[in-house]
Design brief:
This protein is an all-alpha fold. Helices cover 65% and strands 0% of the residues. It has one domain: Orthogonal Bundle (Ammonium transporter fold).
Length: 469
């Protein structure tokens, strides 16, 4: 009996001790813990027990950045555009920005995110993440080792929302609300999603930063090609096809409220820090460099427009200062995480010069009605910034440029890769826009009637007035 009791006690002790001993043996050592901590600080992928765990600081920054980019559209861009149109069309441009947020957001959930970022072909992602299936709070190491996959998806959704909203500025005051939504739905599917995958997606055809087998080894830190060139060049084609507003070139069509425009500019500038610095997908030194470059380029663009207006017209306008700031922001976007402060100032100066020329001389010379200068600021600025990113990119600012497949191009022929990628996207965007316009105009008509245009789109299209008389 005593032997039985001793054996039972021994077995009980073994059952109690062995699991805790095994659990203790499975715990990582001090070196592994320090290694993971260092990976978190450096924003590199952990190799130990923190693999697949979102980092609170980086995750928090990306949630904040997503909110900042949405703030650019609503209310930033809506107020910026709302101040630049006539009183009778204020609500129409705001409704277009708001409506596009809803349409694009649902498309992004349904299939847009998947075909933009899921593994697939070099030109388009697969459908495995449709409905955000499998997109959960764990990180996806392809896009950020410390950021939840669903947070990254929401962050990129905000880019998708603002891109077609930029087009609104070129066709303001004359395109039907329903036709614009249908056009943008088709345009997102045929232009934005494929270009996003080619430029930023896993295995993308032009993703020179992350794809060693990319056919074109281009770089685009925050959307010079993906956002500004696609929307800006498409906007030019669309405004030419739609035709000018009634009275354009014969009567003065001034902005109705520079106060709203100025407020919108400040909101755009504030939100742009999420747009550019957030594109580091971490709160790291690359984000800090992008934050600095964004600020300096905006200041240089603003000042350049002001000086040019003072010299040429005798006084700087608030509209010119706002346009210069936005031009500096748009132009630095593709280069913001790649250039040093001096490079950012150079790009801001070029932004002011090139966009002022486009909005002043080029527009007057060819008499196209780019209502709110979407082409002049975003297409021209995005194109200049895309090329200059290849000229001024520096590995000491962004260590990712040291990858063996792109490092030989830096400081040598990277600019030519930028020209190839930008030129391809330019032609592709314009051609798709022309085809889509022809089809949609035939099916439902794109332009409002002359009576509605004279009355204003606020009352005719939405049954509301932004201002009472």
């Amino acid at each position: 009996m005593n032997l039985f009791r001793v054996a039972a006690a021994f077995l009980s002790a073994a059952l109690f001790v062995l699991p805790s001993t095994a659990a203790a043996a499975a715990q990582p050592g001090v070196e592994q813990r320090l290694s993971d901590l260092e990976a978190y600080v450096r924003n590199s992928a952990p190799s130990g027990p923190l693999q697949g765990v979102p980092g609170p600081g980086h995750n928090g920054w990306m949630m904040m950045s997503a909110g900042l980019v949405l703030f650019m559209s609503l209310p930033g861009l809506a107020l910026f555009y709302g101040g630049l149109v006539r009183r009778k069309n204020v609500l129409s441009v705001m409704a277009q920005c708001l409506g596009l947020a809803g349409v694009v957001g649902v498309m992004w959930w349904a299939f847009g995110y998947s075909v933009s970022f899921a593994p697939g072909s070099p030109w388009l992602g697969g459908l495995q993440w449709s409905g955000l299936s499998g997109v959960n709070a764990d990180p996806n190491a392809d896009y950020g080792p410390w950021v939840s996959h669903n947070v990254f998806a929401m962050y990129q959704m905000m880019f998708a929302i603002i891109t077609p909203a930029l087009i609104v500025g070129a066709i303001a005051e004359r395109m039907r609300f329903s036709a614009l939504l249908v056009f943008c739905m088709a345009w997102m599917t045929l232009v934005y999603f494929p270009v996003t995958h080619m430029m930023w997606g896993v295995g993308g055809w032009m993703n020179g930063l992350w794809n060693a087998k990319a056919a074109i080894r281009a770089i685009d830190f925050a959307g010079g090609i993906v956002v500004h060139m696609t929307s800006g060049w498409s906007a030019l084609a669309l405004c030419l096809l739609l035709g000018p507003r009634r009275g354009f070139g014969r009567e003065h069509i001034p902005p109705h409220s520079m106060v709203l425009c100025m407020v919108g500019t400040g909101m755009l500038w504030f939100g742009w820090y999420g747009f550019n610095a957030g594109s580091a997908v971490a709160a790291d030194k690359i984000a800090a460099n992008a934050f600095t470059a964004t600020t300096l380029s905006a200041l240089a663009g603003l000042l350049t427009w002001g000086v040019l207006e003072q010299v040429i017209r005798g006084r700087p306008s608030v509209l010119g200062l706002c346009s210069g700031a936005v031009a500096g922001l748009a132009t630095i976007t593709p280069a913001s995480g790649f250039v040093n402060p001096t490079g950012a100032m150079v790009i801001g100066l070029l932004a002011g010069l090139s966009t002022f020329w486009a909005c002043s001389w080029l527009k007057a010379r060819f008499r196209y009605d780019d209502s709110l200068d979407t082409f002049g600021v975003h297409a021209v600025g995005g194109t200049v910034g895309t090329v200059m990113a290849g000229v001024l990119a520096a590995p000491d600012i962004n260590p990712n440029l040291s990858a063996e497949w792109i490092q030989p191009l830096v400081g040598r022929s990277l600019w030519w890769e930028q020209v190839k990628a930008g030129g391809l996207v330019l032609v592709f965007s314009v051609l798709v826009t022309v085809v889509l316009y022809r089809v949609i105009d035939r099916l439902m008509g794109c332009r409002v009637s002359e009576d509605i245009e004279d009355q204003g789109l606020d009352l005719a299209e939405h049954g509301e007035e932004g201002y009472t008389h």
